[in-house]
Design a protein that fits this description.
- With 243 residues, the chain is α/β, with parallel strands linked by helices.
- The protein has one domain.
- It has 13 helices and 8 strands.
- It has a 6-stranded parallel sheet with strand order 4-3-8-7-5-6, with helices on both faces. The protein has a two-stranded antiparallel ribbon with strand order 1-2.
- Strand 1 and strand 2 form a beta hairpin.
- The two termini are 27 Å apart.
- The protein binds uridine-5'-diphosphate.
- The site of uridine-5'-diphosphate (UDP) has 14 residues, from helix 9.
Length: 243
Protein backbone atom coordinates (compact mmCIF):
# COMPACT_ATOMS: atom_id res chain seq x y z
CA UNK A 1 0.00 0.00 0.00
CA UNK A 2 1.48 3.33 -1.00
CA UNK A 3 1.25 6.52 0.99
CA UNK A 4 -1.97 8.44 0.32
CA UNK A 5 -2.56 12.18 0.36
CA UNK A 6 -6.01 13.63 1.03
CA UNK A 7 -7.33 16.52 -1.07
CA UNK A 8 -10.81 17.69 -0.04
CA UNK A 9 -11.67 14.13 1.08
CA UNK A 10 -10.36 12.51 -2.11
CA UNK A 11 -7.31 10.31 -1.48
CA UNK A 12 -4.42 10.25 -3.98
CA UNK A 13 -1.56 7.74 -4.18
CA UNK A 14 1.81 9.45 -3.76
CA UNK A 15 3.49 7.65 -6.69
CA UNK A 16 5.63 8.39 -9.71
CA UNK A 17 4.56 7.21 -13.18
CA UNK A 18 6.96 4.27 -12.94
CA UNK A 19 5.56 3.17 -9.56
CA UNK A 20 2.00 3.59 -10.83
CA UNK A 21 2.71 1.36 -13.83
CA UNK A 22 4.33 -1.27 -11.61
CA UNK A 23 1.28 -1.24 -9.34
CA UNK A 24 -1.04 -1.30 -12.39
CA UNK A 25 0.67 -4.36 -13.83
CA UNK A 26 0.44 -6.09 -10.44
CA UNK A 27 -3.28 -5.30 -10.37
CA UNK A 28 -3.76 -7.03 -13.75
CA UNK A 29 -3.14 -10.27 -11.83
CA UNK A 30 -5.90 -9.71 -9.27
CA UNK A 31 -8.27 -7.18 -10.81
CA UNK A 32 -9.13 -3.78 -9.37
CA UNK A 33 -9.94 -0.20 -10.28
CA UNK A 34 -7.77 2.78 -11.22
CA UNK A 35 -9.04 6.37 -11.36
CA UNK A 36 -7.28 9.54 -12.49
CA UNK A 37 -9.14 12.51 -10.95
CA UNK A 38 -8.46 16.10 -11.91
CA UNK A 39 -9.67 19.18 -9.95
CA UNK A 40 -13.03 19.03 -11.74
CA UNK A 41 -13.73 15.54 -10.41
CA UNK A 42 -12.54 16.40 -6.91
CA UNK A 43 -14.99 19.31 -7.05
CA UNK A 44 -17.78 17.00 -8.22
CA UNK A 45 -16.99 14.71 -5.27
CA UNK A 46 -17.81 17.56 -2.86
CA UNK A 47 -21.49 17.41 -3.78
CA UNK A 48 -21.95 13.90 -5.17
CA UNK A 49 -21.45 11.10 -2.60
CA UNK A 50 -21.73 8.32 -5.20
CA UNK A 51 -18.88 9.79 -7.26
CA UNK A 52 -16.81 10.30 -4.09
CA UNK A 53 -17.36 6.66 -3.11
CA UNK A 54 -16.56 5.40 -6.64
CA UNK A 55 -13.33 7.41 -6.69
CA UNK A 56 -12.16 6.93 -3.10
CA UNK A 57 -12.71 3.16 -3.16
CA UNK A 58 -10.37 2.64 -6.15
CA UNK A 59 -7.16 0.64 -5.73
CA UNK A 60 -4.96 3.22 -7.42
CA UNK A 61 -5.80 6.94 -7.51
CA UNK A 62 -3.56 9.03 -9.75
CA UNK A 63 -3.09 12.80 -9.65
CA UNK A 64 -4.11 13.72 -13.19
CA UNK A 65 -3.14 17.35 -13.54
CA UNK A 66 -0.97 20.04 -12.13
CA UNK A 67 -3.95 21.46 -10.16
CA UNK A 68 -3.94 18.39 -7.92
CA UNK A 69 -0.16 18.61 -7.39
CA UNK A 70 -0.45 22.33 -6.47
CA UNK A 71 -3.32 21.57 -4.09
CA UNK A 72 -1.21 18.90 -2.36
CA UNK A 73 1.63 21.44 -1.96
CA UNK A 74 -0.79 24.03 -0.53
CA UNK A 75 -2.00 21.45 1.99
CA UNK A 76 1.64 20.73 2.93
CA UNK A 77 1.26 17.07 1.93
CA UNK A 78 3.15 17.11 -1.39
CA UNK A 79 2.76 14.46 -4.08
CA UNK A 80 5.95 13.40 -5.92
CA UNK A 81 4.57 14.49 -9.31
CA UNK A 82 1.48 14.40 -11.43
CA UNK A 83 0.67 11.18 -13.27
CA UNK A 84 -1.43 12.00 -16.33
CA UNK A 85 -3.92 9.24 -17.09
CA UNK A 86 -2.93 9.14 -20.75
CA UNK A 87 0.80 8.69 -19.89
CA UNK A 88 -0.04 5.88 -17.46
CA UNK A 89 -2.31 4.26 -20.07
CA UNK A 90 0.35 4.25 -22.79
CA UNK A 91 2.98 2.89 -20.39
CA UNK A 92 0.51 0.19 -19.30
CA UNK A 93 -0.08 -0.82 -22.93
CA UNK A 94 3.69 -1.24 -23.29
CA UNK A 95 3.76 -3.30 -20.07
CA UNK A 96 0.80 -5.43 -21.20
CA UNK A 97 2.55 -6.12 -24.53
CA UNK A 98 5.68 -7.27 -22.67
CA UNK A 99 3.83 -9.44 -20.15
CA UNK A 100 1.22 -10.92 -22.52
CA UNK A 101 -1.78 -9.30 -20.82
CA UNK A 102 -4.98 -8.98 -22.81
CA UNK A 103 -6.48 -5.52 -23.26
CA UNK A 104 -10.08 -4.44 -23.99
CA UNK A 105 -10.84 -0.87 -25.11
CA UNK A 106 -14.25 0.54 -24.13
CA UNK A 107 -15.45 4.02 -25.01
CA UNK A 108 -15.47 6.80 -27.53
CA UNK A 109 -17.68 7.33 -30.55
CA UNK A 110 -18.35 4.32 -32.82
CA UNK A 111 -15.15 3.41 -34.67
CA UNK A 112 -12.76 5.19 -32.28
CA UNK A 113 -11.93 2.15 -30.10
CA UNK A 114 -11.27 -0.03 -33.21
CA UNK A 115 -8.90 2.57 -34.65
CA UNK A 116 -7.23 2.98 -31.24
CA UNK A 117 -6.79 -0.82 -31.09
CA UNK A 118 -5.18 -0.91 -34.52
CA UNK A 119 -2.78 1.92 -33.60
CA UNK A 120 -2.00 0.34 -30.23
CA UNK A 121 -1.08 -2.99 -31.82
CA UNK A 122 1.26 -1.18 -34.22
CA UNK A 123 2.80 1.02 -31.52
CA UNK A 124 3.24 -1.82 -28.98
CA UNK A 125 4.33 -4.93 -30.91
CA UNK A 126 3.03 -8.11 -29.33
CA UNK A 127 0.04 -6.39 -27.69
CA UNK A 128 -3.22 -8.36 -27.73
CA UNK A 129 -6.31 -6.18 -27.92
CA UNK A 130 -8.96 -8.82 -27.27
CA UNK A 131 -11.97 -6.58 -27.91
CA UNK A 132 -13.39 -3.10 -28.36
CA UNK A 133 -16.77 -1.40 -27.89
CA UNK A 134 -17.94 2.18 -28.32
CA UNK A 135 -19.06 4.20 -25.29
CA UNK A 136 -22.55 5.15 -26.46
CA UNK A 137 -24.62 2.18 -25.29
CA UNK A 138 -27.81 2.26 -23.24
CA UNK A 139 -27.95 -1.35 -22.07
CA UNK A 140 -24.85 -2.36 -20.10
CA UNK A 141 -25.71 -6.11 -19.97
CA UNK A 142 -24.66 -7.12 -23.53
CA UNK A 143 -21.54 -4.96 -23.24
CA UNK A 144 -20.59 -6.74 -20.01
CA UNK A 145 -21.17 -10.10 -21.75
CA UNK A 146 -18.92 -9.06 -24.67
CA UNK A 147 -16.18 -7.99 -22.25
CA UNK A 148 -16.42 -11.17 -20.17
CA UNK A 149 -16.29 -13.36 -23.29
CA UNK A 150 -13.17 -11.53 -24.46
CA UNK A 151 -11.51 -12.29 -21.08
CA UNK A 152 -9.30 -9.20 -20.76
CA UNK A 153 -6.76 -8.63 -18.00
CA UNK A 154 -6.93 -4.85 -18.46
CA UNK A 155 -10.03 -2.89 -19.45
CA UNK A 156 -9.66 0.79 -20.44
CA UNK A 157 -12.97 2.52 -19.63
CA UNK A 158 -13.10 5.79 -21.57
CA UNK A 159 -16.60 7.20 -21.03
CA UNK A 160 -15.68 10.62 -19.62
CA UNK A 161 -15.87 11.56 -15.94
CA UNK A 162 -17.72 10.83 -13.72
CA UNK A 163 -19.60 8.36 -15.94
CA UNK A 164 -16.59 6.02 -16.20
CA UNK A 165 -15.88 6.04 -12.43
CA UNK A 166 -19.54 5.25 -11.65
CA UNK A 167 -19.67 2.56 -14.35
CA UNK A 168 -16.55 0.83 -13.01
CA UNK A 169 -17.79 0.91 -9.40
CA UNK A 170 -21.22 -0.44 -10.37
CA UNK A 171 -19.71 -3.26 -12.46
CA UNK A 172 -16.76 -4.14 -10.21
CA UNK A 173 -18.39 -7.34 -9.04
CA UNK A 174 -19.47 -8.46 -12.52
CA UNK A 175 -15.92 -7.86 -13.76
CA UNK A 176 -14.01 -9.09 -10.72
CA UNK A 177 -10.53 -10.24 -11.66
CA UNK A 178 -10.23 -7.58 -14.40
CA UNK A 179 -8.19 -4.40 -13.90
CA UNK A 180 -10.36 -1.46 -15.01
CA UNK A 181 -9.12 2.10 -15.44
CA UNK A 182 -11.12 5.27 -16.14
CA UNK A 183 -9.15 7.12 -18.81
CA UNK A 184 -11.37 9.85 -20.31
CA UNK A 185 -10.37 10.89 -23.81
CA UNK A 186 -7.34 8.56 -24.05
CA UNK A 187 -8.84 6.43 -26.85
CA UNK A 188 -9.41 9.59 -28.90
CA UNK A 189 -5.69 10.34 -28.48
CA UNK A 190 -4.67 6.79 -29.41
CA UNK A 191 -6.99 6.87 -32.44
CA UNK A 192 -5.48 10.18 -33.54
CA UNK A 193 -8.85 11.97 -33.19
CA UNK A 194 -7.58 14.21 -30.38
CA UNK A 195 -4.20 15.90 -30.12
CA UNK A 196 -2.14 15.83 -26.95
CA UNK A 197 -0.64 19.20 -26.03
CA UNK A 198 3.03 19.53 -27.12
CA UNK A 199 5.60 18.40 -24.55
CA UNK A 200 6.65 21.87 -23.40
CA UNK A 201 3.01 22.88 -22.74
CA UNK A 202 2.46 19.67 -20.76
CA UNK A 203 5.76 20.30 -18.97
CA UNK A 204 4.51 23.62 -17.60
CA UNK A 205 1.11 22.16 -16.74
CA UNK A 206 -0.91 24.15 -19.28
CA UNK A 207 -2.46 21.31 -21.28
CA UNK A 208 -5.92 22.34 -19.98
CA UNK A 209 -5.48 25.68 -21.78
CA UNK A 210 -4.41 23.88 -24.97
CA UNK A 211 -7.51 21.64 -24.81
CA UNK A 212 -9.77 24.64 -24.18
CA UNK A 213 -8.39 26.47 -27.22
CA UNK A 214 -8.92 23.41 -29.46
CA UNK A 215 -12.32 22.56 -27.92
CA UNK A 216 -13.97 25.80 -26.71
CA UNK A 217 -16.94 23.81 -25.38
CA UNK A 218 -14.59 22.77 -22.54
CA UNK A 219 -14.17 26.40 -21.37
CA UNK A 220 -17.09 26.34 -18.86
CA UNK A 221 -15.36 23.37 -17.17
CA UNK A 222 -12.42 25.64 -16.31
CA UNK A 223 -14.55 27.81 -14.01
CA UNK A 224 -14.35 25.04 -11.42
CA UNK A 225 -10.58 25.48 -10.95
CA UNK A 226 -10.64 28.78 -8.97
CA UNK A 227 -13.44 27.41 -6.77
CA UNK A 228 -11.37 24.27 -6.16
CA UNK A 229 -8.23 26.28 -5.30
CA UNK A 230 -10.19 28.55 -2.91
CA UNK A 231 -11.58 25.50 -1.09
CA UNK A 232 -8.06 24.01 -0.87
CA UNK A 233 -6.65 27.26 0.61
CA UNK A 234 -9.49 27.37 3.14
CA UNK A 235 -8.76 23.76 4.10
CA UNK A 236 -5.01 24.52 4.40
CA UNK A 237 -5.80 27.41 6.80
CA UNK A 238 -8.10 25.16 8.84
CA UNK A 239 -5.37 22.49 9.09
CA UNK A 240 -2.76 25.12 10.09
CA UNK A 241 -5.04 26.41 12.87
CA UNK A 242 -5.77 22.87 14.10
CA UNK A 243 -1.96 22.52 14.31
N1 LIG B 1 -17.76 9.24 -24.08
C1 LIG B 1 -18.34 7.99 -24.24
N2 LIG B 1 -19.62 7.81 -23.84
C2 LIG B 1 -20.37 8.80 -23.30
C3 LIG B 1 -19.76 10.07 -23.11
C4 LIG B 1 -18.45 10.24 -23.52
O1 LIG B 1 -17.69 7.07 -24.73
O2 LIG B 1 -21.52 8.56 -22.96
C5 LIG B 1 -16.38 9.42 -24.51
C6 LIG B 1 -16.15 10.55 -25.50
O3 LIG B 1 -16.43 10.11 -26.81
C7 LIG B 1 -14.69 10.85 -25.26
C8 LIG B 1 -14.48 10.52 -23.78
O4 LIG B 1 -15.62 9.76 -23.39
O5 LIG B 1 -13.91 9.95 -26.01
C9 LIG B 1 -14.42 11.76 -22.87
O6 LIG B 1 -13.40 12.55 -23.29
P1 LIG B 1 -12.95 13.84 -22.50
O7 LIG B 1 -11.73 14.35 -23.19
O8 LIG B 1 -14.11 14.76 -22.28
O9 LIG B 1 -12.51 13.19 -21.14
P2 LIG B 1 -12.37 13.84 -19.72
O10 LIG B 1 -11.83 15.23 -19.94
O11 LIG B 1 -13.75 13.81 -19.14
O12 LIG B 1 -11.42 12.91 -19.06
Amino acid sequence: MTNRVDILSVPFDAVTLEEAVRKGLTLTQTGGRVVTPNPEIVWKCQTDPETLKAVASADLILADGVGIVRAAQTLKTPLPCRVAGVDWFFAMLGGCAETGKRVFLLGGKPGVAELAAKNAETKYPGLTVCGTHDGYFTDAAPVLETIKNAAPDFLAVCLGAPKQELWMARNAEALSGVLMAGLGGSLDVLAGAKKLAPGFIRGIGLEWLFSAVLQPKRIPRLFVIPKFMRAVKKEAKRCAKAG
